Amino acid sequence: MELASRYFDTAPGIRLHAKVCGPSGAPTLLFVHGFPEFWFTWRRQLAEFSRDYRCVAIDLRGFNLSSQPLEVDAYKAKLLINDLSAVIAALTDPVHAVVAHDWGGAVAWGLAAQHPNLMKKFAVLNSPHAMTFAKALATDTDQAEASQYMNWLRKPGCEAALAADDFKRLFAMLDSMPEAERSEYRANWQRGLTGGCNYYRASPLHPDTPETPDRALAVAAALKPTQFVVCVPTQIIWGTGDKALRPILLEGIDAFVPDLRVHKIEGAGHWVARERAEEVNAVLRRFFAE
Distance between CA atoms of 37 and 201, rounded to whole angstroms? Predict the structure, then answer.
């Protein structure tokens, strides 16, 4: 697998980095990572699908070699969605499929709802739909408790705590990995952590705090369900052992995604694309071929 770097100018002052592989002219797959990762999280998928697809794995705004504005407002959902739209336009839209995880999934859910013409298919791994997430944050005590880490990541100065002791907290979050992979992640985080934390600071979706009780309920009530309907064929892959995103987030999802397939991987954690790469790849390949 030969990887080449490519850059996309997506907005004034914003340039996104990507790794590209696979035969030119083949159907394109766009891979979108989450926090606290970067394009490298998809390495096992790139090795598999670059045999017969053109694979593009981006670094989101705020991560790794992409632009990292420091202002929280630079990470509003509409700007992040516009970044993906611009990348796909530069790839000669639409792409065969968008494949996304975690925060990348959150952005791609919005892209799929607002710009279904930009993709033929959508695959999302352990990343909740906005409507089911908002409801769970407001009404499910266990999910609200599991999401408290979001409020910690919103606090000023959390970047320093994440970087302390050679990024000890971040490595613990990602579970065990070979030292060669740790070196890749370390280099990524050394380029900056503020952008990644700003995703949490900019988002209205986070649990209540003692200072703002019942806020999550108000946010959920303000969302307009019709704005979040995804009509493109969608494949959800969900590790049921995810400690931060519980399976309750799948309840009611079919009301917003009429053309839906759900594949649960029992016991797999949040980093399912790495933990269960073989199974994830098999599910994706079947979906892409439909």
Answer: 17
CATH of 4-289, one of 3.40.50.1820, 3.40.50.300, 2.40.50.140, 3.40.50.620: 3.40.50.1820
Residue type, position 164, single letter? A
Q: How far apart are CA 171 and CA 125, in angstroms?
A: 20
pLDDT per residue of the chain (290 residues) written in tens, 0 to 9: 899 999 999 999 999 999 999 999 999 999 999 999 999 999 999 999 999 999 999 999 999 999 999 999 999 999 999 999 999 999 988 999 999 999 999 999 999 999 999 999 999 999 999 999 999 999 999 999 999 999 999 999 999 999 999 999 999 999 888 888 999 999 999 999 999 999 999 999 999 998 888 899 999 999 999 999 999 999 999 999 999 999 999 999 999 999 999 999 999 999 999 999 999 999 999 999 99
Active site amino acids: 102, 200, 270
